[in-house]
Amino acid sequence: MGTPCHFALFELQPSFKLDLDQLATRYRELARGVHPDRFADASEREQRLALEQSASLNEAYQTLKSPSKRARYLLAMSGRDMPLEVTVHDPEFLMQQMQWREELEDLQDDADTAGIAVFKRRLKAAQDQLNDNFAACWDDAAQREQAERLMRRMQFLDKLSYEVRQLEERLDD
């Protein structure tokens, strides 16, 4: 038997829109039940099982908590297998990516913390918009290709977001 679906693990219906507070609460409840410390006196097999369950639970939680990972997971569940790194046939978005990258480089060169804060807000707004667009597309099976395109955009913005956080940390040092 394979591992249960991430959604089933949390007793949720597969959906892009999730109540993240509810997810976090359920995660904490489940995590307590499989925490390795609870199995300190158990057999080696039970300890190993608890460790595996704990790892599966963590992976499921990290996947469902992140909009882009959740989108990717839903697409995979729907039978669309996507390579991790793909070329995006999305010229408009490629131009947008280049602009964002250049802007981030300028902010980095100038060590412009105020500019970075503004950039982060714009990035967050773009991410929220993509999440809304994906949610709208996801419910329509005819729009799976568009959903895939949006998911790839989401992944790029995640990466950009991570780079912004790293830049902020470097500037804070």
Name a few traits of the molecule.
173 residues, 7 helices, Monooxygenase, mainly alpha, Helix Hairpins
Give a verbal description of the structure.
There is one protein chain. The chain has 173 residues and is an all-alpha fold. The chain has 2 domains: 60 residues, Orthogonal Bundle (Helix Hairpins); 82 residues, HscB, C-terminal domain (Monooxygenase), CATH 1.20.1280. Helix content is 73%, strand content 0%. It has 7 helices and no strands. Helix 4 packs antiparallel against helix 7 and helix 6 packs antiparallel against helix 7. It is globular. The termini are far apart. The model has no long low-confidence stretch (mean pLDDT 88). Belongs to the HscB family. Keywords: Chaperone. It comes from Pseudomonas endophytica. Interacts with HscA and stimulates its ATPase activity. This is Co-chaperone protein HscB homolog.
**What average pLDDT do the residues reach?**
88
Overall geometry comes to globular
Residues in helix, %: over 70%
Order of SSEs, N→C? HHHHHHH
CATH architecture of the largest domain: Up-down Bundle
CATH superfamily of the largest domain, by name, is HscB, C-terminal domain
CATH overall fold name of the largest domain: Monooxygenase
Q: What profile does the largest beta sheet have?
A: none
The unreliable regions are: none
Q: Give the beta-strand count.
A: 0
In the CATH hierarchy, what is the class of the largest domain? Mainly Alpha
The proportion of residues in beta strands is under 5%
The Rg value, from CA coordinates, equals 19 Å
The total count of helices amounts to: 7
Terminal CA distance reads 49 Å
Number of domains: 2
Subunit structure: Interacts with HscA and stimulates its ATPase activity.
Domain J: 5-77
InterPro entries: DnaJ_domain (IPR001623), HscB (IPR004640), HscB_C_sf (IPR036386), HscB_oligo_C (IPR009073), J_dom_sf (IPR036869)
Function: Co-chaperone involved in the maturation of iron-sulfur cluster-containing proteins. Seems to help targeting proteins to be folded toward HscA.
